[in-house]
Amino acid sequence: MKRMHIIISGRVQGVGFRYFAVSLASRYHITGWVRNLYNGDVEMEAEGNSTRLTLFLQEIQEGNRFVRVRNMEISEIPLAHDKDFKVVY
Length: 89
Fold this sequence. Notes:
Layout lengths: L1 E10 L5 H12 L2 E6 L5 E7 L1 H13 L5 E10 L7 E3 L2
Parallel strand pairs: 2-5
Antiparallel strand pairs: 1-3, 1-4, 2-3
């Protein structure tokens, strides 16, 4: 198990990014949270099995037809043992 803190920049606000992340997290059994930042970036913490977390982050990086990720700053942080993955405000 690992937990990552991620700052994502690009076209990630106003395009459904947070709900895209929630959907992917559900598919990969990832817990944590995601929120918009005032500077246009998105902040996220994601926790899960190392392999699933890697796959989750790869799909986040790829984006979708609306989301365009330019950069992801990723650092490992202590586990929090969340129960789900949610949008926070």
